[in-house]
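Example record

The entry below shows one chain as it appears in the dataset: sequence first, then structure tokens.
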Amino acid sequence: MTKPQLARIAALVLSCAAFACASAATITIVNQNAPGIGFNDPTPVAPVGGNPGTTLGEQRLIAFQHAADIWGATLTSNVPVRVGASFVPLSCTENSAVLGSAGANEIWSDFPNAPRLGTWYPSALASKLATVDVSSPGEPHIISRFNSRLGLFPDCLPGPGFYLGLDNNAGPAIDLVTVLLHEMAHGLGFQTFTDDETGAEIQDIPSIWDHYLVDNRTEQLWVNMTPEQRVASAISVDRLSWNGPNVSAAVPAVLDPRSRLTVFGKAAGKAAGNYAVGDASFGPPLGRKPVKGHLMPVIDQPDGTGLACAPLSRRNSWAVRGNIALVSRGSCGFVDKARNVQAAGAIGMVVADNAPGAPTGMSGDDPSIKIPSVRVTQEAGIKLREALQGRSRNRSNVIASLGVDPHRLAGTDARRRILMYTPDPNQPGSSVSHYTTEAKPNQLMEPSINSDLSHTVTPPRDLTYPLLRDIGW
């Protein structure tokens, strides 16, 4: 995802209009492609997943309107929302690609009925609140662009590309409707207009978003911070939370208990304790009944670490059989490591990171993997390997327990407020304007599109709509 770009900055003063009864929002797609490309691409295709289009362009437009209708049925507004949309070539390589980007075309402050004065609102939301269209004549409220080359060329993430069906059955492809729901949410207001790299507000005016970002150590809001404090907050990893009442009320019904690794045993020593972990998208999820076993290292590298990128040797197989395998990140996919240690008889896997940073999830998909897997920090991996120095061939007396913390929800702070995405270093276009990647289940508004998402934007599955309600929808 790339950072939504603002096309205009504006302020509006109008006489107050009378409120009309709230109704479902109408969201229309404004086709901004030239003839023969994007939404107008005449390439013949077969109908797929409930999408009856018979050309590539037609199917793209149908998928777009389907996502718009989902948001329209969820939101209320008497002012129709216009989404300027196009399929164009975007940045991509053989291994990665920008799927799309979207954002508010204009932002407004001090309009009629504005809940907060001296505050930027995206034009679609400002129009809803003002009960009149505040945007410049003929301008869309949201601008969006999506990658027309994805999966169709060898230099742009070759493979199945976008799935254009409407049935949420994308398989190995990238579900376009899910991507559209994500990007439309940005355009509706799921973003800050304050620069997360410099901390600077546009014209020294905060975004409505900034009134709900809070440092969970000091309880200071972004809107009350200095630019320097906002810069530090944007790379604080786990210190920035969303403080809006609608999201906070919905969190307990949406998020699952946080996964954790607990280490104990006669030989655990300084390694004993609880560890934050990243969950795997493959294998069984961790539950209240933990998987326990001796932690045993895989060693297949000259430095004493183990990558488990090939079938395990007889010695390593003997070590991990019936135990939990400790391996290092790198050289191959997480799924490959899990497959190899499972084949050797391991009952679980712990992956130690190969670079500093907070533990994040592990991607991949293989239904044949039946063992749980977690990822820990590089620092934790070093500590665990030190504790395993006195092991025997198949026992370490360092017991690993893979389970959940019944007192903490995944991706939340101590007050059960969801965390925002604030990695160090800053990731322009992703930092601050997304939810944390530690949420479980995965949320629509994480910085990456996960394969397990549904076409749902509301609780008890998703926390996107509650945040939009917090800012005024």
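Notes for this example: Residues 1-21 have pLDDT under 50 and may be disordered. The CA atoms of residues 164 and 421 lie 29 Å apart.
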